[in-house]
Specification:
The chain is mostly helical and 254 residues long. It has one domain. Helices cover 71% and strands 4% of the residues. A two-stranded parallel sheet has the order 1-2. It is globular. One of its GO terms (biological process) is proteolysis. This is CPBP family intramembrane metalloprotease. Residues 149-237 form the CAAX prenyl protease 2/Lysostaphin resistance protein A-like domain.
């Protein structure tokens, strides 16, 4: 049961939401929009342009490794910030579904959710790219190195943690406390998720809005955030590691 907020608490949560997302994924959404506009102003068609997700950050191997790990730490901190603010407000991790009481069912749910999103998602991306609605997305352009696989897995986990904690657990909880309807909060969460994927093109936006609607609805019904985090991690691991292994070896990948 969500207790009603007084005017001071409402203003506090509204300012908190603005600040959190101005520092994290909301700002990423605005930057992503700018990148999409830049791509649209380019005379080269969208599907002939490329955009990479995991890219080298330094010329020297060990410095690149350090830079990649710092990026993972940043993502972990973003998710941790959302959890800390909820905890300070009296929300327990168990209420979000971040406890260890349902490891088996959560794991099975994650596998099923990853399959439901992942297989149609690949098909949708390829269709959008062929229709000229998407850039060619390269999940990884990291050079071959002894640490590449581990870093890509950590990057996948970091992305999943930051996104699912902030965009689902934190945002929807705060919007509930502010009196938003479940459907409206779900839509806001999904559109935010789509916004920071705009740099990929219109297909990236629509595909991630759909993913956000599915993931958000699953959480609203189950309150099991681990299911979303693990499913998202699996999706990104397959995309990041799979692409790095197949890159240049198959002709159907952009």
């Amino acid at each position: 049961m969500i207790e009603p907020l007084d005017a001071r608490e409402r203003r506090g949560y509204q300012v908190e939401l603005l600040l959190v997302f101005a520092m994290t994924l909301g700002l990423s959404g605005l930057r992503s929009l700018v990148r999409l506009l830049d791509s649209l102003l380019n005379p080269v068609p969208l599907n002939e342009q490329k955009v990479a997700i995991n890219v080298p950050q330094a010329r020297f191997d060990l410095l690149d490794l350090l830079a990649q790990l710092l990026g993972v730490v940043q993502l972990a901190a973003w998710g941790g910030l959302g959890l800390y603010l909820l905890w300070r407000g009296g929300v327990r991790l168990r209420a979000l579904g971040l406890d260890r009481t349902r490891v088996g069912p959560d794991a099975l749910g994650s596998l099923g959710l990853a399959a439901v999103i992942g297989i149609p998602g690949v098909v949708f991306y390829l269709v959008a790219w062929n229709l000229g609605l998407n850039l060619a997305v390269q999940p990884s352009t990291l050079d071959e190195s002894w640490w590449r696989g581990a870093v890509l897995i950590l990057s996948a986990a970091g992305n999943a943690w930051a996104e699912e904690v902030l965009v689902v657990g934190y945002l929807i909880t705060r919007l509930r406390q502010l009196g938003w309807r479940e459907g409206t909060a779900l839509l806001a969460s999904a559109v935010l998720r789509g916004s920071y994927h705009l740099y990929q093109g219109f297909g990236g936006f629509v595909g991630n809005v759909v993913m956000g609607l599915v993931f958000g609805k699953v959480w609203q019904r189950t309150n099991r955030l681990w299911v979303l985090v693990v499913a998202h991690t699996l999706l990104d691991v397959v995309a990041f590691v799979g692409y790095s292994l197949l890159r240049g070896r198959v002709d159907w990948l952009p």
